[in-house]
From TrEMBL:
Name of this chain's protein: Acyl carrier protein
Subcellular location, record wording: Cytoplasm
Gene: acpP
Family affiliation: Belongs to the acyl carrier protein (ACP) family.
Assigned keywords, A-Z: Cytoplasm, Fatty acid biosynthesis, Fatty acid metabolism, Lipid biosynthesis, Lipid metabolism, Phosphopantetheine, Phosphoprotein
Boundaries of every Carrier domain copy: 1-74
Organism: Butyricicoccus intestinisimiae
Length: 74
């Protein structure tokens, strides 16, 4: 799951997937704006088969947060 999320983020934000860790901050480290976050959540929902409510998405700061949420809601 971690590798899949990193590949998606690397593609979307034009970064090297090998540099991403569970502690990578989506907004600060990847320079994601609010539109990027919405698009990312939609992509993750489609790819992973989960629903991510906006209020939950707002709480997710790191890649680890994304991974934890997806694993708990699959």
């Amino acid at each position: 799951m971690f590798e899949k999320i990193c590949e998606m983020l690397a593609d979307k934000f034009d970064v090297d997937a090998s540099t991403l860790t569970a502690d990578t901050k989506i907004k600060e480290d990847l320079q994601a704006d609010s539109l990027d976050i919405v698009e990312l959540m939609m992509d993750l929902e489609e790819e992973c088969g989960v629903t991510i409510p906006d209020e939950e998405a707002a709480k997710m700061v790191t890649i680890g947060d994304l991974m934890k949420y997806i694993e708990e809601h699959k």
